[in-house]
Amino acid sequence: METRKRKPGYYLALIALLLAVLVVLLGAYTRLTHAGLGCPDWPGCYGFIAVPQSETQLAHAELHFPEAPVEAHKGWNEMVHRYFAGALGLLILALAGHALLRRGRDGQPLKLPLLLLGVVVAQAAFGMWTVTLKLWPQVVTAHLLGGFTTLALLFLLTLRLSGGPLVMPPLVPRLRHLAALGLVLVIGQVALGGWVSSNYAAVACIDLPTCHGQWWPAMDFANGFHLTQHIGPNYLGGQLDSDARTAIHMTHRLGALAVSLVLLGLAWQLWRHDLGRLAGLLLALLALQISLGVSNVLLHLPLPVAVAHNAGGAALLLSMVLVNYRLRALPVAARVETQTTSSRAALAPTPIVQVGK
Fold first, then answer.
1. Residues 111-170 pLDDT 10s
2. Are residues 169 and 275 in contact, defined by beta-carbon separation less than 8 angstroms?
3. Mind listing the pLDDT tens digit for each residue in 12-61?
4. What's the rounded Cα separation, in Å, for the pair 110 and 113?
5. How far is it, in rounded angstroms, from Cα 9 to Cα 219?
6. Which of 51, 94, 190, 259 is the right S-S partner for 75, CB 3.0 to 4.6 Å?
């Protein structure tokens, strides 16, 4: 086993990654406590940098936002999330600046930090639209996906800067294809989870494995996945009827089944190719996420379990990023090592053989 040296910027990327985890969890907590409109404006709160507290500030808020009375606990949930998201944006800006300064040196990634910066700028826009468009489900779901994207890209950047150990197991192309499929399905399931959350469909079914006592209940897929909903109404609490929410919930369940089957097959293949640790990690996270999902249904979405379910989705996504990184980066590293060894052999002096008289 060979260990590569960590590259400059690794610890900055690691701190940003940990902060991104916190931001994702705070975002989930904000959604689940119905605090997405805790502040009716952006980026401040009723025109202030913090939630209004004094009599003068409260009077100002009532005058300028009469339709949105101050609820301090919801306002603070929203503002704390914004504070940490802003700090994360500054760290990612620093990572992009560092990459530009060191471009072309020590194999430092450049495109990835710049992509991260672009994603964060888009995230800020979606954060604003989440408020100004009053929790329009399309924007809320895109905002959630942007948060998970930021987290995944930061994890990938941390891996590339880490200089971790190189382990080169025998690999086959179909294993990499299966891992890529697993990653795509997990991303799709995260998107479905965001759509469930933004349309308040998590408790549309309160029994398992059936829904409303039926294996295939009445469902309205046309309205459940109507992506051109009108902009304008306040979507806090949702606008869809029961059958539409049931369709969203059941689609998320079917997605979970598809993800489980593919990841179980991937874990088996990883184990067969001497990647038992990755297989064990994948199985543990999958089992945890399924357990949390079942608990959400049977316990009617308790806040700690619902937040943990969001964290489990993030962890499962990161595990798939790790699997794909290891399966795709290692063959490249192996080729580089082979080329380096060949170059050294070519430069070695040729031994002189003396022929006896």
1. 999 999 999 999 999 999 999 999 999 999 999 999 999 999 999 999 999 876 555 455
2. yes
3. 999 999 999 999 999 999 999 999 999 999 999 999 999 999 999 999 99
4. 6
5. 50
6. 51
Q: How far apart are CA 181 and CA 33, in angstroms?
A: 34
- What separation, in Å, do the N-terminal and C-terminal C-alpha atoms of the chain show? 47
Tens of pLDDT along 191-207?
A: 999 999 999 999 999 99
Q: Could you check whether the bond before residue 43 is cis, i.e. omega within 30 degrees of 0?
A: yes
CA atoms within 13 A on the CB side of 6: 10
> How far apart (Å, rounded) are the C-alpha atoms in residues 92 and 87?
9
Helices (H), 230-301: 242-272, 276-298
* DSSP classification of residue 167: -
Distances (CA, A) of 146 to 43, 97, 109, 231, 241: 18, 21, 21, 20, 27
Q: In whole angstroms, what is the distance from residue 176 CA to residue 73 CA?
A: 47
**Cβ(267)–Cβ(308) below 8 Å:** no
Annotation marks residue 78 as catalytic: yes
